[in-house]
UniProtKB/TrEMBL annotation:
One of its GO terms (biological process) is 2-oxoglutarate metabolic process. This is Dihydrolipoamide dehydrogenase. It comes from Streptomyces griseochromogenes. Keywords: FAD, Flavoprotein, NAD, Nucleotide-binding, Oxidoreductase. Pfam families: Pyr_redox_2 (PF07992), Pyr_redox_dim (PF02852). Its cofactor is FAD.
Amino acid sequence: MSATSDNQTGGIYDVIVLGAGPVGQNVADHARAAGLSVAVVERELVGGECSYWACVPSKALLRPVIAVADARRVDGARQAVTGRLDTGRVFARRNRYVTDWDDTGQAEWVKSIGADLFRGHGRIAGPRRVTVTGDDGAHHSLTARHAVAIATGSGPALPDIPGIEEARPWTNRHGTDSSSVPARLVVVGGGGVGVEMATLWQGLGSQVTLLVRRRLLPRMESFAGELIERSLTEAGAEVRTGVQVTGLRRPDPAGPVTLTLDDGGELEADEVLFATGRAPATGDIGLDTVGLTPGSWLDVDTTCLVDGVDGDWLYALGDVNHRALLTHQGKYQARTAGDAIAARAAGRPVDDAPWGDHATTADQHAVPQVFFTDPEAAAVGLSAEQATGAGHRVQVVDVEFDAAQGAKLYADGYRGHARMVVDLDREVLLGVTFVGPGVSELLHSATVAVAGEVPLKRLRHAIACFPTVSEIWLFLLAAYRRD
């Protein structure tokens, strides 16, 4: 990565994008497709957190762990699994998928769509103005005719605990770019990052202890966390719920770290990984120059325009608007906002009605998410608790996966659970959750059903192939009809 800009001139553009991760790339692509000139600003690697420290490396590392677990669930294949994972090859596989942290290919893609790439720290300098400071101190002044899109993402939020600086804890970045396996690893946090990191490093050979304040995956149906906790425990990890870390000690930088817990006990590990939330990467991007608070999440309307900024020019996409800290959801917002920017630039009407061309309606109704644990947990829409809390009159339908012949063939003793939450007044789905091996590939069908508000009377005519895991739909719908 060069230290300064790939474009040395600065100047006036229709659209300026802060952040060249998947979200920034998508809004740039849609703006360019509409014929708008675009400048993209990136202070780290083009491709962002997702490409180098989050989605891509974590899934590249998790796949060998899950593949071995799947093989062990099939008689005949189980007997062929005779050794441990080759961690060197697992890390090498990860390195291939992150292109050895070389962003040349993604930088070339940005330029291939006709956008100008500026490398350096971008800061808003007032309405429609951005300054870029390169690593060498060079400055570039950019002006946007129509829009500035903030797509700077988020970073790990570490708790304010005595000794945390001395302990030098891992975050998601250390958890995905490290190439050595700690003998003992404590993971703090039971959300998506926490359970995936516990699954990953236990599979690679660490003795993992997972510390959780409440329960695993607290925003999903409770059975998701229960099944994952059971599986982690069976794999040899220790899961401790209802505990908090109150202090850390690591007097020898090369030695172990000691954790003090709120129950008065202590725990020693070779490394500790905190997965305790995210903070918006908006602390030093000039928000104060347009009346916003540095370091804050940014509230937006349905087209992703930032609230409280006059002139319809400032957009916030992806993690920074705090709607759904998921790459695919940020890319959806970016595509939608990119089209809205183009419409406003051309003076065309903006279709921001629910489910309109320029409305991010799915942010409120049909957000899909998958955690690549063992078993996988996948959900879209509202949980039963969320639906009831929102005032819907619902029916909850639960089915065990072993009802489906396809699941039994997929894995001997297949263990999993499916739930759909039905809006009784309209007879459409408000939410669906699957937990089990391989269920991530079932989720899009549920997303189509929820986003499309497909009537259950019609959905029963969508026939699942025999014998596949997707036969679970037949049993869910049959259970609803019986009830």
